[in-house]
Design a protein that fits this description.
Elements: H1 2-52, E1 57-66, E2 70-72, E3 78-83, E4 90-91, E5 96-100, H2 103-172, H3 179-224, H4 233-250, E6 253-255, E7 260-263, E8 272-273, E9 280-283, E10 289-295, E11 307-312, E12 320-328, E13 354-361, H5 363-368, E14 376-382
Antiparallel strand pairs: 1-10, 1-14, 2-9, 3-5, 3-8, 4-7, 5-6, 7-9, 10-13, 11-12, 11-14, 12-13
Length: about 375
């Protein structure tokens, strides 16, 4: 019995370490079970999120604000006499930006006005000339009639003188007519013949004058036929030159083509600006959009019209813009670069390409929280289209 009593405490001492190990192993198994359950829950939650949300959304932080900016260029060359705006200033469409010197433009308007007045006077003179030439033609016709009458009279006188000479020549052989009378008769016949020739020449001259007058009349009538003073081609051309000069005069005042903010002003007072040379840029902050550069594999289901959400770094995640996909670029950023990448080499490595996607934003949200060109944004597209 004594031996048994001495052995029981020994067995108890050996059993205690085994019990602690078992308890530790049980705790470890419990924690592993809990971890497995937690991982399973996380996996299930992630799977549910992916099935319900994730697979229907694509996002990128490679996105920037852009806009169709307006380049302000003078339509006429001139010297700057006044500048009304500075960089960062907001302007409305039609606001005066720059004023150019108007001296040459005003002179051009005055010259064009004088040319128009001269064209009108020339047309009125052409009308008056037409009437005068018509009267000249009628006068020439009357002259022709008069010379024809004179020719008839001269021919009658010639016939009379010829008959008178014939009678005297018959009587001259009998001595009944003196030599002087015969000479006078011959002189009278010669004078009558000359009178006939003169009348014929006068008729020819009158007819030629009439033809010339008729030609001038036809030419003048061709200039004014079917036209009024306002529809005359010369008057219309002069009026067009005047309108062009007036437009050039108006273009000496350079106005804002759109609403926006003045950026990159490159003009100073006294500077001589050339026609078509950019002098400043206007950014339409109320009509900006986002260029989101998505990876090519993200675009398999992206279509125009799908809704999108945009957050800008300038405002943080608290401000969300709502928009839609307006279009996909015609080429990747690399292909549209100034110096495109050349991959036809032996050391070629495939690089995932990005394609710019244009996101149009809600104008009302832009008005509440304006954006500027170049700001960084994050874009998420809802592929479900809802």
């Amino acid at each position: 019995m004594a031996d048994t009593a001495t052995e029981v405490p020994g067995e108890s001492a050996e059993a205690q370490p085994n019990g602690a190990a078992a308890e530790k192993l049980a705790k470890r198994r419990l924690w592993l079970t809990r971890l497995a359950i937690a991982l399973a829950v996380v996996g299930a939650v992630w799977a549910a999120w992916y099935l319900l949300v994730g697979r229907n959304h694509v996002s990128t932080d490679n996105a920037y604000v852009n806009a169709e900016v307006a380049q302000v260029t003078p339509l006429v060359a001139g010297t700057v006499v006044e500048i009304k705006v500075v960089d960062t200033q907001a302007v409305k469409k039609g606001d005066v930006l720059v004023v150019l010197d108007t001296d040459k433009a005003r002179i051009a308007v005055a010259q064009a006005t004088a040319d128009l007045a001269d064209a009108r006077r020339q047309f009125r003179r052409a009308l008056a000339t037409t009437g005068a030439l018509a009267a000249t033609v009628r006068a020439r016709e009357a002259t022709i009639g008069q010379t024809q009458a004179q020719l008839a009279a001269a021919q009658a006188d010639f016939e009379t003188a010829r008959l008178d000479l014939g009678r005297r020549e018959k009587l001259a052989a009998s001595g009944a007519v003196s030599g002087e009378e015969l000479s006078n008769a011959r002189r009278a016949l010669a004078n009558a013949r000359a009178a006939v020739a003169t009348a014929q020449a006068a008729i020819a001259q009158a007819q030629s004058t009439r033809v010339s007058a008729q030609g001038e009349l036809a030419a003048t009538e061709a200039l004014v036929r079917g036209s009024t003073e306002e529809t005359d081609p010369a008057v219309m051309a002069a009026r067009a030159r005047l309108e062009a000069a007036q437009i050039d005069l108006g273009n000496t005042v350079i106005r804002a083509p759109i609403d926006g903010v003045v950026t990159r002003r490159q003009v100073q007072v006294g500077q001589r600006v050339a026609q078509g040379a950019p002098i400043m840029t206007i950014v339409p902050v109320g009509k900006v959009y986002v260029d989101a550069n998505f990876k090519e594999r993200q675009l398999r289901r992206v279509q125009v019209g799908m809704p999108a959400k945009v957050t800008a770094d300038i405002y943080g995640s608290g401000v969300v813009y709502h928009g839609k996909v307006a279009g996909l670029s015609g080429g990747t950023g690399a292909s549209m670069a100034l110096i495109p990448a050349q991959n036809a080499t032996g050391n070629w490595i495939k690089v995932v390409q990005r394609l710019p996607v244009r996101i149009e934003l809600d104008p009302r949200e832009l008005k509440e929280h304006p954006l500027r060109v170049g700001l960084s944004t994050e874009v998420e597209i809802d592929l479900s289209g809802e």
